[in-house]
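Lab meeting notes turned into a lecture example. A postdoc, R.K., suggested we walk through two folding results consecutively so the class can see how the record format repeats. The first protein's sequence and structure tokens come next.
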Amino acid sequence: MKRRQALAALGALGGGGAIVTGTGAFTSVEANRDLSVQVADDSNALLRMAAAGEGNDEYVTTNGGELGINLTGSNPTDAGGQGVNADATTVIADLFEVQNQGTQAVDVEVTPLSFVDTGNGDTLIVLVVPQTGFPSVTLGTGDTETYSLVIDAFPGGGDLQVTDTLTVTGEAT
């Protein structure tokens, strides 16, 4: 019987020694590493935002490297256009695009997708319409989503205007 007790005590002592010495794991590490971050214009960033191409690029502006959309008299077209028609629906297809220039797939969402201004019985509605994904799209590396605008001014549109901000959100999948 004493032999069994001695073996049990020896086994317990050996097991306890293994617990005390551990398996090489650790609870904390602090290490200094280099970090380099650069802010780029929208057209050169990891999530690129730019005019979609020929034809409608006059409506897309760049201010301080940031993309904007301007359909007002402060941004007349080469032909002299200074806004949208009253009591009409205007579609500007393929206006701007968002491209994933990063290293992994990204869920992209543009919000809000609608803007409304009303007054004196008139209404102005602006809709942002993604080409393929609604309301968001997953872009693989190098993939691009193109956005269009639909503007409806009714019954006349009056002196209404929409001055607001689009938010483009990209989140790695």
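The second example is placed directly after the first for contrast:
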Amino acid sequence: MIDPEIAAGVDFSLPPLTADRIAWRREHGRVVTDAELGRGGVVAFSEEDADGVPVLVLRPTGAVGPPVLHIHGGGMVAGTRRSDLHVLAEWVAELGVVLVSPEYRLAPEHPHPAPVEDCYRTLKWMERNGFAEPVVAGTSAGGGLAAAVVLMARDFGGPVVRGQLLMCPMLDDRCETPSSHQFLAGTTWVRASNLTGWTALLGEARGGPDVSPFAAPARAVSLEGLPPTYVDVGSVDVFRDEAVAYASRIWQAGGDAELHVWPGGCHGFDQLVPEAVLSRRARAARVEWLRRVACVPQFDSPCEGGPSGNDE
């Protein structure tokens, strides 16, 4: 059951995403305003070019802290570099991080590997431009892309990533977990929408034997050697079980993962109803983890993993 406060603030009447509604979804996405980005003047922002990828860079107007690469959501088919930042700009305001948000190419016009290549290109650009050793974060489809970028950094010898923060991540194209079958209607992202997003990205390869882990990170044979990881998801989310499984596999590989399953949270609940009690709890837990792992100054606990982001 969806948390009553969340349910009261969400419109559940929209039909599932289908291929013929992708254009509509793009046109009717939430527009994040300059005022929301600026947070009352404590956040400055600029449009920059990351080797051909448009990026939005948010910086604190005061002391500058460590970098975060945040990859927006949108089911692989929608969203912009401003998406999700009406909430996540608080990381810049509260922690002083520098947040870089890429506008990766979208499916189906640009199927895999275009989206993840754009995000990995942004990570490499960050390393060369003074934003070294970031936390890589992502929301929904962006959470899946964030996980894929971290796998690429591991497998291709860098850049160094300090941690990964995966919010309701879209990880598994096979769509065969219990939660993938459980939510057919009555929530914000249902099975039909999920199938549309994955098919847009992968075409006929979706669910087959040859999908790359850089498209669907749940396909990775090994999750060894990953940096400290934070995974969260709502209990009423089609991605619930794949998110739990991803954190569990990191533990099984000897890694460091923190997992939160928020009771009564639907997909994207904290973005949709940010002032709800459950949303505030979820956001506060992420900020706490970021303080610790990103080594934000004046925090009284030691950094996890030291400068390299590995807990060795």
